[in-house]
Amino acid sequence: MRLVVRGLLNKQIAAALGVSEITVKVRRGQVMRKMRAGTLADLVRISDRLGE
User: Fold this and answer.
1) CB 5 within 8 A of CB 46
2) What CATH number is associated with residue 20?
3) DSSP code per residue over 1-52
4) Residue 4 pLDDT more than 80?
5) Which sign does the torsion angle of CA 36, 24, 5, 39 carry?
6) Which residue of 7, 39, 49, 51 lies most exposed, with the fewest beta carbons within 10 A?
7) What is the spatial distance between Cα 16 and Cα 47, in angstroms, rounded to a whole number?
8) Cα(4)–Cα(15) distance, rounded to whole angstroms?
9) Looking at residues 5-19, what average pLDDT do you find?
10) pLDDT of 52 above 70
11) How many domains would you assign to the chain?
């Protein structure tokens, strides 16, 4: 979540974590659903509230 909120692209996150880009896409979707964020902007606001 931190890397997504920082604005990194899926490709950049995948390289940083050593996973495939598809894995990042799946996990990103799971985070969005879990945090009930409809948009990336919503996720950033939620992250700010949580102190991430």
Assistant:
1) no
2) 1.10.10.10
3) -HHHHTT--HHHHHHHHTS-HHHHHHHHHHHHHHTT-SSHHHHHHHHHHHT-
4) yes
5) negative
6) 51
7) 20
8) 13
9) 96
10) no
11) 1
